[in-house]
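[step 3/7] inverse_fold.run input=structure_tokens len=406
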């Protein structure tokens, strides 16, 4: 059961984007599992991908195609990651692109493939290829909700975010979907995320905006510390809503779009944490007083990845020594522990490296019993600050992952 508000908003149409989906029976019966995005001509597309050395075949193909041509289509299957599948898997990803290209009249290089699901199994190509035409026939600008459901694996709920905003009198839209619930410690983005806007943005700025937004959203979440083989995040700017193209950072509209983009991306990223496999609590880990943001993130991730911290939170056990332990083994040179302060929400549990004089177990337990909380750490060595979002570790996480292939 997801934590907090995970409801789908009204998904505003993005001019220049159509989406279709179908039941291709890639792995599961009676559910949409194959999704196709169509972008208008002259759409600018950017992507960021997993840094896992065993990156999946579709990741390899998508990265190569982005360098060759302006993408017109995305094709996404769930139920099978097409990762750890060697040359056969690579050829299957390429064949998927070629078949969709033949159907739509574009080149194979103008198609980006994406897969998510079980690693190490070959795609059921006859079923997948047979599903491409029905997905194309379903193309419609209003099908964002169906797409959000069609890319799910162990997710318990579809994930979407959408905003409309006005620049120089023109109304623009930013809409996106994501999926992911386990194998989440993005080293770039998340399992899968697709965001589009109809604002006119120069090609070189599309990639720049994506990199900035990813670092403030998907690169600040973790569920279990595992970086997937298939992590991919795509941002498309169709320019179909009109207006003068934004071509420099100095354009006042650039900052406005970046603000909306970061907000949308943070919502999509946090939805993944809220729907973490077996999650019962949503946790913000804020570290301040660091020398730089890298140092703050090192400590935040150390806490967020600790099985002992995460299980204590699941049990509502204010065993704050586990938090200090995680701070201590983070790779921070010359950390003066006597300057470290730690809070659970507004309850200070550690002052100057030891137990706060007025701290009580009852106060700590009250915070731990909440479904949402913040662990705040002050390292006392600088002015940098950053936040990582995570969830607890419950019995159900083990059950879900023990049964995943069954």
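[step 3/7] decode complete -> sequence:
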């Amino acid at each position: 059961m997801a934590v907090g508000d995970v409801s789908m908003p009204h998904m505003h149409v993005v001019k220049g984007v159509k989406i279709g989906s179908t039941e291709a029976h890639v792995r599961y019966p009676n559910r949409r599992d194959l999704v196709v995005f169509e972008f208008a001509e002259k759409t600018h597309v950017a992507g960021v991908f997993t840094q896992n050395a065993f990156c999946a075949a579709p990741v390899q193909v998508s990265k190569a195609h982005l360098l060759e041509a302006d993408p017109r289509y995305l094709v996404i299957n769930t139920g099978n990651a097409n990762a750890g599948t060697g040359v056969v898997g690579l050829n299957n990803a390429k064949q998927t692109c070629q078949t969709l290209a033949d159907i739509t009249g574009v080149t194979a290089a103008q198609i980006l493939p994406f897969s998510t699901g079980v690693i190490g199994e070959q795609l059921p190509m006859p079923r997948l290829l047979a599903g491409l035409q029905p997905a194309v026939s379903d193309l419609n600008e209003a099908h964002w909700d169906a797409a959000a459901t069609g890319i799910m694996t162990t997710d318990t709920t579809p994930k979407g975010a959408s905003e409309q905003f006005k620049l120089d009198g023109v109304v623009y839209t930013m809409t996106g979907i994501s999926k992911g619930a386990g194998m989440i410690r993005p080293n770039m983005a998340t399992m899968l995320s697709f965001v589009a806007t109809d604002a006119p943005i120069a090609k070189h700025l599309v990639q720049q905006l994506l990199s900035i937004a990813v670092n403030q959203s998907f690169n600040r979440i973790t569920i279990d510390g595992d970086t997937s083989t298939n992590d991919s995040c795509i941002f498309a700017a169709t320019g179909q809503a009109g207006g003068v193209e934004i071509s420099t950072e100095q354009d006042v509209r650039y900052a406005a779009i970046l603000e909306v983009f970061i907000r949308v991306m943070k919502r999509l990223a946090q939805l993944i944490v809220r729907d973490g496999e077996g999650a019962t609590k949503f946790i913000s880990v804020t570290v301040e007083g660091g020398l730089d943001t890298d140092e703050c993130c090192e400590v935040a991730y150390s806490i967020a990845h600790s099985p002992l911290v995460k299980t204590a939170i699941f049990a509502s056990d204010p065993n704050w020594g586990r938090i200090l332990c995680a701070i201590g083994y983070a790779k921070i040179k010359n950390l003066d522990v006597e300057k470290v302060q730690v809070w659970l929400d507004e309850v200070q549990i550690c002052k100057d490296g030891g137990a706060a004089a007025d701290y009580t177990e009852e106060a700590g337990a009250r915070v731990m019993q909440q479904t949402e909380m913040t662990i705040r750490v002050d390292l006392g060595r600088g002015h940098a600050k950053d936040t990582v979002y995570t969830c607890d570790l419950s019995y159900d996480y083990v059950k879900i992952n023990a049964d995943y292939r069954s």
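[step 4/7] annotate
The CA atoms of residues 23 and 32 lie 4 Å apart.
Residues 186-190 have pLDDT under 50 and may be disordered.
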